[in-house]
Amino acid sequence: MTATHVNPDPKASPSAADTPPDTLHVVKRDGRSVAFDRQRIAYALEMAFRATYELPSPAGLGEQLLTQIDRIADAVVHDAEFEAQRSQGVTVEQVQDWVEAQLMHAGEFKVARDYIVYREQRSRARAVRGQEEKPGRSVKIAQADGSTAPLDVHALKRRIFEACLGLDEVRPDDLLQDALVSLYDGITEAELDKALIMVARQRIEREPAYSQAAVRLLLGVLYREALGDSMPAPDFGAPAPLFEAAAQQRDQAHNAFDRAYRNGFETALRDGVAADLLDPALLTFDLAKIEAALEPDRDRDFQYLGVQTVYDRYLMHIGERRIETPQYFFMRVAMGLALNEDEREARAIEFYGLLSTFRFVSATPTLFNAGTQRPQLSSCYLSTVQDDLDHIFKVIADNAALSKWAGGLGNDWTAIRATGSHIKGTNGASQGVIPFLKIVNDTALAVN
Predict the structure, then answer these.
(1) Which residues of 11-30 are buried (b: 16+ CB within 10 A; e: fewer)?
(2) What is the pLDDT of residue 41?
(3) pLDDT above 60: residue 186
(4) Rounded distance between C-alpha atoms, residue 179 and residue 46, angstroms
(5) What is the pLDDT of residue 382?
(6) Any idea which of 13-17, 242-246, 279-283, 409-413 has the lowest mean pLDDT?
(7) pTM score, whole prediction
(8) For a tag on the chain, would you pick the N or C end, based on fewer CB atoms within 10 A?
(9) Residue 150: which of 140, 142, 158 has the closest Cα?
C-alpha cells in the first residue's frame, strides 16, 4: 500500500473528551480558526500506520500499537499547547510538522517518511487546484559538476529531526525555520551542511541540549565524508518502536551502520598508507580483532566544541577529505602507541579504551603523529641558549624543526649578554636579547 493512503487531515467528527481547552485553536489554510481536536491527530496517526504497514480497516491494531499512537498524539498536543503560550493559535502546517517530529522521536521512521511524502503530494495537488499560494522561492543547490538542483526540503527536515531524536529540550521545527532563512540560491552542499550546524550551535548558550544536535549534524557530515554517501544512516538513540515490523527495521538499520563503520576502518588505513601519511606497519595488525573493538556509539560522547576541534585539527585527511572518524582516530593513535608492544592488538585495544572514553587523552603531538610515518610523540623540548651567534641561530633552527612536528618549545635565554655589553670580536655594543626574541617569535609563527 502506498503512502498516498495516509490521511493527515481526516474529517472525523470531534470528540469533546479529546478536545483541549477552548483557548487552543488551529488556524486553517483558509484563515478560519477552529478548536484543536486531538481525535483528528489520533485518527491521522492510525491511518498512517495502517497505510505504511498495510493493515486494512477495520482490523485491530493491537494494544501496544494503540498505546504508541496515544503517546504520539499526546506529544503533539503538548507541542501545540507549548506553541499556544507564545501565540494566539497554531496552524495546520505546524500540527503536521509536530506529527512528523513525534513519529521520528518514537522511532517510527518509515511511517514518518510516508507521512512526509503524502503531505507533499497533497500540497502539490492544492497548488494545482489554486487552493493555496505557490511555495516561496525555491532554493537551488549548486552541484559539483556546476549544475543546480532544487533543495529537497523534506530530506532537510528529516536530517534535522533525526539529529534531535531523544532531545526533549530541542525544537527541530525551530531549527528548520532558522536553516531555511539562512539559505540562498547557489549554496553548495558543504555550505548547506555548515548552515545546519551553525543554526544548532548558535542556540547552545540558551539551551545546552542543542550541543548534542550540533554534534549529530556534524557527525553526519563527517560520516559521509569519511565513509561515503552510501553509508547507512546512524541511529541517534531514538526509542525502540513498539510495532514489531518497525523495530525490526530499526535493528537492521543499526546493524548495517555498525558493520559499515567497522569495515571502513581498514579502508581508511589503506588510504592513509597509500597517501604516505600512515605507517604501513599498521596494516600488519590483526585488523579483524581491532575492528571488532571499535565502539561507534562513543562518537556521540563529545560535546560540540570537542568534535568540531577533532574534525578541524586531528583527523587524518587527504586533500580536504577526512578519512578518519573520531573512533578511527583514537584507534589509529592506540595502534601507533602499541607498535613495539609484545601483544600489540591487546595493548592497542587497551589504549583505545582509555582514549575513547576520555579517561586519558594524550598530548597533541602524540595525537597528531602516532601511527604516522613520522611518529614524533614528545610534547616539550627545553634548551639553553649560549652567548654565541652560531648557537643562537642553531637553537632557532632547532625550534623550527621541532615546531613543525608539533613539539612544544622552551628556551632559556639567561646566558645572553645584556643590552650595551661589549662585544670583543667586533668591538661593538650588544643590543641584548630582545632582537633575537623577535626572530624566535616570528619563526615560531611562520612554522606553526
Answers:
(1) eeeeeeebeeeeebbbbeee
(2) 87
(3) yes
(4) 31
(5) 93
(6) 13-17
(7) 0.71
(8) C
(9) 140
Confidence at residue 296, expressed as pLDDT on a 0 to 100 scale: 94
- pLDDT exceeds cutoff 80 at 145: yes
Task: Extract the C-alpha cell encoding 93.
Answer: 502546517
Per-residue pLDDT tens over the stretch 331-363: 999 999 999 999 999 999 999 999 999 999 999
Select the more confidently predicted residue: 123 or 277. Answer: 277
Interhelix angle 63-84/92-105, rounded to 10 degrees, is 130
Identify the burial level of 320 via C-beta atoms within 10 angstroms of its C-beta, where 0-12 means exposed, 13-18 middle and 19 or more buried: exposed
